[in-house]
Amino acid sequence: MAVLSIISRTASRRSVRALGVVAASAALAVGAAGNALACNIGEFSAAAKCDGEKGVITVTDVDPAGIPATVSVYLQNKGADAEKIGEQTVKGSREGSTITFATDWQPNAEYRIHVKADRYVDEDIKPNLTTPSTPCKGEDTPAPEPSESSSTPSDETETPAPEPSTSAPAPAEDESTAPAAVPADNAPSPAAGDSNLAETGANSNTGMIAGVAAALVVVGGGAVFFGLRRRGANSSR
């Protein structure tokens, strides 16, 4: 009987130990499952996108438990918060719940995104969000087609340029007629000597005769003078 009692005690202790191990394993499994279902920072993601010409930052929560979380977005400048862009609350889902922050972000800008969800999450999404290097642009607007009224007129509507005339120009009146006679007033005036002779009638032989007579008078006077002088010299002897 004593032997049986000892055996039963040993079996009971082993059974208790086995049950304890099973219970601990179950607790650990439940805790792990609870932690897996609880909200965590890995379930949040952020992206910088374009909504037409406007820039936006989106944050997506894929928490299947749907625990509400507050998301805050900050613009960074040299590692510090320069501006708070906004703050919104998101309730995650298995498919993913997305919230949008409208901000005209600049290329290569850095944003810090902080998530706080009850006692589960209170940290930033790592790494910080960096915007693309290309800014947002609107869709290219097609250039308006030129209307028919503003289009260049065709060759049929253009006014032809006048053709150059091949006939020689008619001669001018002053070229075809002889030059007019020079007026008498423009004719050269006669020499002064010719005019005086014409007026006094000196174009006859009267001048020559007068000159010969004057020469004879001079010669005669000289002869008389020399003759009188010789006579006076002879009388004085």
UniProtKB/TrEMBL annotation:
Organism: Streptomyces olivaceus
NCBIfam families found in the cross-reference section: LPXTG_anchor, strep_LAETG
Disordered: annotated span: 124-203
Signal peptide extent: 1-38
Protein name per the record: LPXTG cell wall anchor domain-containing protein
Residues spanning the membrane: 208-228
Superkingdom, natural source: Bacteria
Keyword field: Membrane, Signal, Transmembrane, Transmembrane helix
